[in-house]
Amino acid sequence: MLALALPVMVEQLLHTFVGLTDTYLANHLYRTAGLAGDELQQAFRNNSAATAAVGSVAYVQWFVNHLSAALAIGATALVSRAIGAKHRSLANAVCGQVVMGALVVGVVAGGLLAIFADQIAPYSGLKGEALVYFASYVRLLALAMPMTILMFVASACLRGAGDTLSPMYALVVVDLVNVVMSVGLTYGIGPLPKLGFDGIALGTVIAYACGGVILFVTLVRGNGGIRLYLHRLWPKWNMLKRVLRIGLPGGAEMLMNWAANVAVLVSVNALGTLASAAHTGAIRIEALSYLMGMAFSTAAATLVGQSLGRQDLPQARKLALYCYYIGGGIMTVWGVAFVLFGPWLATLMTADPSQQALMGTCLRITGFIQSGFAAAIIFGGAMRGAGDTKNVLFINLFSTLCVRVVGVLVVVHVFDMGLTGIWVVLSGELFLRGVLMATRFRFGAWHRAKV
Hints:
15 helices, mainly alpha
């Protein structure tokens, strides 16, 4: 379990560092040293606009990744079962089909983003300078879409085969390149041109291109226990049906969750750039916790799938529980840190006192529910690994649509509670989702899902 989870944990920590770096760069795009009065306040407003744009673009990235989620979830479930049953040729066939699908989705998604960036931007709810930053970032991000989705799907194949080291190594390179290039291109360090806000986006594009190439070569060489043969890229509709039968409910779940979160984002952005920037910063700091849960969710999905492939249900249950004990324990510790040190953590992201206060309050609110959040992530991952994606979909839809979206609309438009009220709703919904996932895992027939 630790062999699977720890590389993903390292990878997620580095990825979180990239998100924190992007947010920091946006919050310090305009220098504030030596400024006072109106000039200082204008610099703070400009930085908040850039930060709000970076936070909103993250939802575009998530949307594109979710487009490939059906392929990735199906790949993890089928590859892990095939490896557990010692049917390596089936695992290789699945790999070829999902890689082909990833490239097609990436080219189409990238082209559409490049063409319609200006038309998409107003739907973010951003205004003024933040809107301009958003459209600019999306146009550049479109260039990376094929490699981004390839990287996402290739990692799912390798992890399903039990190899979490290769994706970790690739993403270490991605994250280091991202940080170095984004910082260098934003400020014009060394031989790199000074591009300002566009430097943040271009650093991401370069990094994702590197990651896609690295993982494609890894699959072709067969170093991760699974191999990509070029003749496997030709569409095999029966195999794609199997992948999509498992993956489509999970992909639909993620897309619907995305849509619900966009509705929340629009409500946040409508509160102004200060609230949007604070929301972005709080999410990036909270990622230090929930991405740890994602690491153990990935391990749970692989271990449960492989255990069921060996017809060993008790082992599948036991390993999933161990993943929660460790991953949930780590997230609980982070929750305590958010409650005790949330305001101080906010000072690391921005020099704006107003943004610091709001961000710190949000972190303290979410600190109390990290153990429940962990249950939602890890038990959900375990059941997806078993192929029980439909019931995970139903739980997430109920929780997200009936509690999250409705609750946010009520606290914003009825009670006018602002960002603090939104975070109370978001945190309560995540805890409820964790209770529902744990109940399904304890009493449900998730292990009987047909794959």
